[in-house]
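From the methods appendix. Each design record in this collection lists the tokenized structure first, followed by the designed amino acid sequence. Records were kept in a plain field format so they could be parsed without special tools. The example shown here is representative of the layout used throughout.

RECORD:
FOLD TOKENS (406 positions):
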């Protein structure tokens, strides 16, 4: 086990259970780094702080795991964390019209770099740290016991795979642990009564964003009679909700042609299942475009509802400043283009952007656009994506539903 000494003063936030330690906080490591592994973490005056996982190559050098000197975060510890996370979701599992949710939410569930979703019995694990990758066997064994699943697919996070040195291979296994070929059949599931299918290979992530579940229902309430722009639509979950909410029309814009094609397929699916009215398909147009270029050239006063759900623009703290400019630019353009009294549902899923900074960004965008804003709804990820209060970054998804007054 490594022994790591934290610089004086830097331990204050760590003893309050903030789990992330960056290189600047580390005074000494012994022996010197060879490969990722467990560490005992001490203050400069030799007091025990926590056990953690040390990986000098990672953008988060040290993840703290256990603050109890008697509890070493070994394989048994990890298995317990997995069981706990799954058990805590059991109360949510019984909903009639939803069979998709997040079972493990990374470090908010005390497991660095492991996000696990279930879609109608199929598990999708997204791996974003060496800790999760190095413990894949333990994770798979624990899940076999804790969850009654049909298949599990393990997907390296495309954002972090290069910097974390993760394997690029997607692996799939059946219930008995036999390797299966990834990607033969679509997985069909329901969220809030709407049918979706995940096409194997459609994306580097799980193929669906179940963190927006509650917000889709909120947006649906405002859709009636509106001309909607679904910007960064992906496979159209917001579009489908707007259609169910009787929107006048929806224009879906995304940079991914395959996502847009799948969006159209999912409208048919829900028309066939009688979830959506039969005139839904004719209300929808799609456009493959860069959202920034699209917003710049979009016609003024065409839309009275705009959904802005861009990808994670700040994947790490160092990218935050540029990301903020991009978020502000996008929001300012939407405010300029929307009809007076129009509704914008604006989101950011960057963990390094705080809720306060996000709100500030929206307010600066409004003053640049020369408009007034009323906040109608404040949005976040659903309760299967808990926010760990000692890790502010776990409050990664924030959204505001605003009225633009001109
Ligand atoms: N709103 C979606 C999720 C959006 S995820 C839902 O509810 O399911 C972000 C989407 O942005 C992805 O589909 C990605 O293809 C798209 N995207 C990424 N960069 C983009 C860009 N520059 N312009 C347009 N779309 C972009």
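DESIGN:
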């Amino acid at each position: 086990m490594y022994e790591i000494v934290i610089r004086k003063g830097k331990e204050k936030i760590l003893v309050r259970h903030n789990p992330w330690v960056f290189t600047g906080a580390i005074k000494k490591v012994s022996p010197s780094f060879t490969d990722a592994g467990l560490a005992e973490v001490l203050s400069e005056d030799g007091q025990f702080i926590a056990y953690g996982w040390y990986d000098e190559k990672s953008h988060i050098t040290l993840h703290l795991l256990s603050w109890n000197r008697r509890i070493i975060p070994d394989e048994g510890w990890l298995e317990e964390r997995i069981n706990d996370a799954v058990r805590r979701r059991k109360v949510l599992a019984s909903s009639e019209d939803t069979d998709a949710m997040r079972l493990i939410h990374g470090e908010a569930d005390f497991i660095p770099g492991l996000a696990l979703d279930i879609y109608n019995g199929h598990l999708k694990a997204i791996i974003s740290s060496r800790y999760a990758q190095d413990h894949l066997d333990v994770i798979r064994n624990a899940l076999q016991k804790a969850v009654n699943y049909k298949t599990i697919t393990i997907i390296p996070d495309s954002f972090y795979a290069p910097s974390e040195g993760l394997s690029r291979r997607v692996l799939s296994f059946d219930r008995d642990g036999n390797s299966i070929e990834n990607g033969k059949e679509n997985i069909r599931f329901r969220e809030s009564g709407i049918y979706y299918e995940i096409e194997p290979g459609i994306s580097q992530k799980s193929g669906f964003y179940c963190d927006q579940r509650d917000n889709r229902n909120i947006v649906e309430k405002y859709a009636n009679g509106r001309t909607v722009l679904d910007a960064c639509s992906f496979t159209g979950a917001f579009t489908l909700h707007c259609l169910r909410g009787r929107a006048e029309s929806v224009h879906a814009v995304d940079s991914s042609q395959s996502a847009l094609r799948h969006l159209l397929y999912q409208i048919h699916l829900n028309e066939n299942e009688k979830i959506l009215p039969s005139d839904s398909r004719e209300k929808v147009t799609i456009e493959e475009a860069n959202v920034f270029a699209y917003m710049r050239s979009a016609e003024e006063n065409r839309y009275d509802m705009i959904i802005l759900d861009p990808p994670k623009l700040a994947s790490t703290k160092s990218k935050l400043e540029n990301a903020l400019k991009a978020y502000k630019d996008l929001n300012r353009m939407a405010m300029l283009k929307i009809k007076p009294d129009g509704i914008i549902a604006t989101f950011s899923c960057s963990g390094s952007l705080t809720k306060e900074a996000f709100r500030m960004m929206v307010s600066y965008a409004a003053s640049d656009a020369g408009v007034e804003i009323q906040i109608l709804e404040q949005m976040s990820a659903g309760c299967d994506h808990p926010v760990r209060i000692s890790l502010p970054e776990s409050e990664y998804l924030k959204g505001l539903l605003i009225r633009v007054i001109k």
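APPENDIX NOTE: The first strand starts at residue 2 and ends at 6.
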